């Protein structure tokens, strides 16, 4: 069913790199009455992420990079351990994640499996992330990765049980990465 909404105002607050808007809208509630909201909405585009896993080694490939938004919110050195991910730009989600995998990790992935899609911060961010998984092996590594332009990405191969431990002890604190690592257990990809 379509939302019963009337957008009254759509004001751009910032459009420097991504776009931050303030929407004023009237919404019809379940009981038929109307309510007016003002909500700030940050549009950073959509993204894709991938779990690179190896069944024989029972391991995953993750990346570590500086994330300013975490640095200003209690992450002391600003470094975050994450699954490979990127913004879609003009690519399809699958094309995007293949490109990001090789740019960020150096692995040229074969078949990729689409897992699910998720809004990651629906209270204020438009972003929908497309989740994938693919097997990697040493022979698929074309270079050491590291990202493009001013990116400075460290690539790590981590035993799966250790990655799960890192969620528990707080060394992994990224939502998409936790979702992918838990999926690997639920789907029996890794043990
Ligand atoms: N100049 C400038 N550059 C920016 C800005 N924000 C991002 N960039 C640059 O834009 C590029 C984005 O790199 P990607 O690999 O495509 O995206 P990502 O930052 O890894 O984002 C992925 O992970 C995010 C965190 O989970 C996701 O939010 C996102 O959808 C995507 O999947 C990086 O080179 C980054 O430095 C900005 O405000 N200014
Ligand atoms: Mg990235």
Automatic annotation (TrEMBL):
Q: Which reaction does it catalyse?
A: GDP-alpha-D-mannose + H2O = alpha-D-mannose 1-phosphate + GMP + 2 H(+)
What are the annotated GO cellular component locations?
A: cytosol
**Residues holding Mg(2+) 1:** 85
Q: Which Pfam families match?
A: NUDIX (PF00293)
Question: Which residues does the annotation say bind Mg(2+) 2?
Answer: 100, 104, 151
Q: Where is this motif: Nudix box?
A: 86-107
Give yes or no: UniProt keyword RNA-binding: no
The segment(s) forming the Nudix hydrolase domain are 43-180
Q: Name one GO biological process term.
A: ribose phosphate metabolic process
| InterPro entries, per the entry | NDP_pyrophosphatase (IPR004385), NUDIX_hydrolase-like_dom_sf (IPR015797), NUDIX_hydrolase_dom (IPR000086)
Give the cofactors, semicolon-separated.
Mg(2+)
Which keywords does this Swiss-Prot/TrEMBL entry list?
A: Hydrolase, Magnesium, Metal-binding
Residues at which GDP-alpha-D-mannose binds: 17, 38-40, 67, 85-87, 104, 127, 150-151, 176
Molecular function in Gene Ontology: hydrolase activity, acting on acid anhydrides, in phosphorus-containing anhydrides; metal ion binding
Q: Does the keyword Secreted apply?
A: no
Per the record, the similarity remark reads: Belongs to the Nudix hydrolase family. NudK subfamily.
Spell out the subunit comment.
Homodimer.
Function, as annotated? Nucleoside diphosphate sugar hydrolase that hydrolyzes GDP-mannose as its preferred substrate, yielding GMP and mannose-1-phosphate.
Protein name (database record): GDP-mannose pyrophosphatase
